Amino acid sequence: MKTLLEARGIGKRFGGLQALADVSLTIREGEVYGLIGPNGAGKTTFFNVLTGAYTPDGGGFAFDGGELPTGKPHRVVARGIARTFQNIRLFRELTALENVMAGHHIRTRAGIWGILIQNRHTREEERETTERAYELLRYVGIERFADTVSRHLSYGDQRRLEIARALATEPRLLALDEPAAGMNATETGRLKALIEQIRGDGVTVLLIEHDVKLVMGLCDRVAVLDFGRKIAEDVPAVVQRDEAVIKAYLGGGKHAH
Amino acid sequence: MDAETLQQLINGLVIGSVYALIALGYTMVYGILGLINFAHGDVLMVGAMTALQTMLFLMGVAPGMSPVAMLTLALLVAIPVSMLIGYTMERLAYRRLRNAPRLAPLITAIGMSFLLQTLAMIIWGRNYHTFPQLISTTPLQPVEGVFVTPVQIVIIVVSALLMIGLTLLVNRTRIGRAMRATAENHRTASLMGVDTNAVIAFTFIIGAGLAAVAGVMYASNYGIAHYGMGFMPGLKAFTAAVLGGIGNLGGAMLGGIVLGLVESFGAGYIERLTFGFLNSSYQDIFAFIILGLVLIFRPTGLLGERVSDRA
Predict the structure, then answer these.
(1) Mean pLDDT over residues B225-229, rounded?
(2) Which of B172, B175, B177, B192 is the best residue to mutate to test the A interface, defined by the most A CB atoms within 10 Å of its own CB?
(3) Domain-located, residue A49
(4) Stated pTM of the model
(5) Rounded average pLDDT over B265-279
(6) Which residues form the domain of A106?
(7) What is its main location (chain B) (predicted)?
(8) Of A30, A127, B224, B311, which sits most exposed with the smallest number of CB within 10 A?
C-alpha cells in the first residue's frame, strides 16, 4: 500500500520537557492508524506539530509525495489533513450547518469582488457549500440539528459535528484526537461504525484514543508513544503483547524481575 | 409629535447613522482581536481629507463635472486610500503585537492615532478647510417648521444601505463565516483551514472603508474638514459601540443611533433643563455621561452578550 504520511525524526521541546523525541512513523493510504500511550506521552503534541499548530524543533513530514509546511495550520489543511480536538472546539455561536460550512472555507474561492457583486460563480459556490454541509451532517447523523447553535448540541453530537466539520475540509487524512472520550458504550459503538464508514469512503484515519478496546478493534496498525518516544509500532495483536508497551502502561516497577 | 421633536429626531438619526458606521469598524476589530483601535477615528479623517483633495483636483481639471460624478470619484479614491491605511496599520503594527499583553496594542493604537494626525497636519496644514458641499444643503420643508437637507437624506439612506450590506456580508457569505469563526477562536479557525491573517486584514479593510464613507458624509454635512476632525466622532463612535455592546454588530448600529438621538435631544433641551446655565454647545457631554453610565451599570452594553473580560 502507498505511503500517505511519513513523519521523520519529529522532536519538540517545551522548556525542560522533551515532549517528542525523534518520532518517526509511516501511515499508509486507506488504513486506520492508532496512536496510543499513557497520559502525557506526547500524542496530542504530535497532532499539534502535524497540523501546524506547533513548529517542530527537528524533523519534518512528507505527505502525499511532498513536504508539509510547518507552523502554518491553514496550509496544512489545504494539503489535506484535518483534525478534531480532545476538548471539543466548535465555533460555539455558529449553527451546526455554519460550522461545517466554515470547514469548507479552504475549498472555496469566492473573493471579495465576487462576494460584493454576488456573481454567478459565488452564488453557485455558496449553494454547493450549503448542500455539501447538509450532506455531511446527514453522514454523521445530526442533520436535524442543522440550524441549532452548536453549543446547544449534546456532547456526543458535538463530537460528531467536529468530525463533519473536519470532513468538510475534504481531507486525505483525518486526525481524530480522542473521539470517544466521555462517550458511553452505545455512543462508542456508533462512533466506531462512523469511522469505519469514513475509511470505507477512502479517507485515511489517524486516531488517538484511550479506549483500548476501540483501538484494537478498529486500527490496522498502532504506534505506542511513551515519554515522547515511539516504543512500538505494529498490528494491534502484536503491540498488545509487546513487553515495553505493557511496562509503559502498567509502570516499570511491577514487571522488573 | 410637534415640529421641534420631529426636527430633533431627524438630526439625531443623521448624526447617529454616521456614528453607527464608525462604530461598526471599532466593534468588528474588537470582536476579532479584542483590540480597541483608537486610530479608527483618524482613518475617517484620512478618508475625508483624501476626498477633499480629489475634489479640489477635479475642480481644477474638469470644472464642468456634475457634482454627483465628482463626489463618486472622490469616494472611489478616498475609500481605497483609507482601506490601505487600515491594512497597513494592521500589517505593520498590530499583527506583531497579537500575542503581546493587551495594553501594548492599545497604546500602539493611540500612537497610530497621533501618527496619522501628524502626517495629515504635515500634508494638509493646520487650517480648517472648506469641504465642498456637492449635495445640496438647501433645506427642504416636508412638514411645516421641520427642515431636512438633501445631504442629510443621503446620509441616512447610504448608511442604512451600508449597514444592511455589512450584515449580509457577515451572516451570509463565505468571508463573513470565516470572520465569525475567527472571532470565536483564531487557532481553531486556522486549524480548520481559515487563513486567519487574511481574515483579520480583511476586517480592518472593511472597517476602514466604512470609516471613509462616514468621514466624507460627516464633512459634507458640516462643510468643514481638518486634520483633527476624526477625534471627536471617533470617540463618540467608540461610546456608541460600548453602548450597544462592543463586539456586537447590531449593537454598534443601535448604539450609534441611540447616541445620535440622545445628543440631538440633549442639545435641544439642555438649555431648558439647566435653566439657561448650559447651552447646546455643551452637547458633547451627553455622549460621555452615557459612556460612564454604561460602564458602571451595564458593561456588556444594550445587546452585548460577550462578557467584558477583554476591555
Answers:
(1) 96
(2) B192
(3) yes
(4) 0.87
(5) 84
(6) 94-169
(7) membrane
(8) A127
